[in-house]
Structures are given as C-alpha cells and as structure tokens.
Amino acid sequence: MIEVDGIDVSYGNIQVLWDLSFHVSEEDRVVSIVGPNGAGKSTLLRVMSGLHPYHAGSVTAWGEDVAEMDPSEVVQRGFVHVSEERNLFGDMTVRENLEMGAYTKRDTLDETLREVFDLFPILEERASQRAGSMSGGQQQMLAIGRGLMARPKILALDEPSEGLAPQITNRVFEKIDEISEEVTVLLVEQHVHKALGLADRAYLLENGEFVAEDTGPALLESDHIKDAYL
Ligand SMILES: Nc1ncnc2c1ncn2[C@@H]1O[C@H](COP(=O)(O)OP(=O)(O)OP(=O)(O)O)[C@@H](O)[C@H]1O
Fold it and tell me: Per the similarity annotation, which family is this (predicted)?
C-alpha cells in the first residue's frame, strides 16, 4: 500500500499541497480524487511516484520511504503512474511502447503482453503502427496498456479522459472498470460523474487540501460537489 502522511509540497517557494494525508491499498478497487484545475491532483501523483519531493510528512510504498527510492523502484514495488501527458514514444510502434512498459518486469513480458492485447484488441491490431499516428482514444488505451505492462498492484491514471470525445471517454471508463477487477485503480479526473460513479472511496481536493471524503456515489450527491460542479 501507498501511504501519504501529512505532506507539504511546493514548487519553489509556492506551496501547493498542505498537510495532506491519504492512502491507497490493494484492497481498494477504485479510489478517485477529483478537484478543479490547479488543485494539486497531478502533483500528489508525482510525489507518490517519487518524481517530486515533499518537505514535511512522509510517503511510504509498501512500508519503504519513497524519498529514498528511485522512481523505477516505486514502479518495481507495484505503483505505476500513467501521466496526463501520456508520454508515448510517438516514433516507436505500439508493440515497442508496450515492451518499454515492461522494463521492470522483463521475465513476464510475453504473458503480460497477451493480457494487454486481450483487454485492448485494437492494440494488437495496430501493434506495428507508429504510436504517434494513433487516434487520441487509442493513444490513451496504449498509455494505460503500457502502464499495465509493469504489472502494477496499484495503477494511477491521471485524467484518462483528457481531450477525448464523450463516446471514447465512455469506452475508456468501461476499460478502467474492467481493469479494476484485477488491479487497484487510483483515478484522478475532471470528469466528476464518471470518476465518482466508479469509486468505492473518493476525495475532493481544493487548493492543496482534501475538503471532502466519502464513497464515490455519496460524494457525488454531496453539497460540496454540487456547489463546485453541478
Ligand atoms: N512544474 C511546475 N512548476 C511550478 N508550478 C507548478 C508546476 N506544476 C504544477 N504547478 C502548480 O501547482 C499547482 C497544482 O498543479 P497540479 O498540476 O498538481 O494540479 P491539478 O489539480 O492536477 O490540475 P490540472 O488538472 O490542471 O493538472 C498549480 O497551481 C500549478 O500551477
């Protein structure tokens, strides 16, 4: 499990997360974090991945201090973060991108590739195509598939619906629901209805602090969410 305890996080001298505590474990199915632009959602994921430092509190992954780890060790332990930017290798093929995702789990590469192709048949059909030539929805599925290639225990998805048409967004969320049967999903989303509809635990983050926490459906019905979004 990943445990965040009382962290303060800044960019230069601007603090963006304030005394934040939070955890996600393999027993969770979907945990969602929603909140407006600039609330600090992506920053929290970056801190959990060991990609950004914190200056108070602690972050542990399966009991070990993330600040002491290289980001690849966080991946190795089971926390994989698919960033908002997707960061695909546009000139490489779909298959090559997926293989890159297995850099910490080479021994199970063939087996995992089969599972990812079963989940996303389009990736198998397009295996030899350049990643950069795929549609936005296909690229998002590739980014998620590449994350799964590292065999995560917890898969963090940052804004998976970003830039996608509503119909494609629905497809992506159907896949996320399917993935959550096997792997814990930590979902950061602007798409509040979808993200809270799936979540068994959910948080509203505003200005670097959690202002509400509940089950996803209960948070969706709360005045906090109605005031902020509806
Ligand atoms: N590299 C950076 N340098 C300086 N400030 C940053 C940097 N990245 C983010 N910030 C600032 O930190 C705050 C939190 O940003 P963050 O991206 O974590 O929010 P978010 O909730 O994920 O929002 P969004 O959905 O817009 O990405 C914002 O005020 C943002 O401007």
Answer: Belongs to the ABC transporter superfamily.
Q: What are the two backbone dihedrals, phi and then psi, of residue 87, each rounded to the nearest 5 degrees? A: 50, 45
Query: Cα separation of 103 and 146, whole Å?
Result: 10
- Expressed in angstroms, the distance from the first to the final Cα of the chain is 33
* Domain architecture of the chain: domains with CATH: 2-229 (3.40.50.300)
The pLDDT tens digits of the residues spanning 89-148 come to 999 999 999 999 998 888 889 999 999 999 999 999 999 999 999 999 999 999 999 999
d(CA 96, CA 90): 10
Q: What's the whole-model pTM score? A: 0.94
Name the token pair of 189. 């989303």
Residues sharing a CB contact under 8 Å with residue 102, sequence separation 6 or more, in sequence order: 108, 109, 112, 113, 149, 150, 151
DSSP 108: G
Going by CA atoms, what residue is nearest to atom 24 of ligand 1?
37
What is the CA(16)–ligand 1 centre distance, in A?
8
Is residue 46 lining ligand 1, measured as CB closer than 6 Å? no
DSSP-assigned letter for residue 107: G
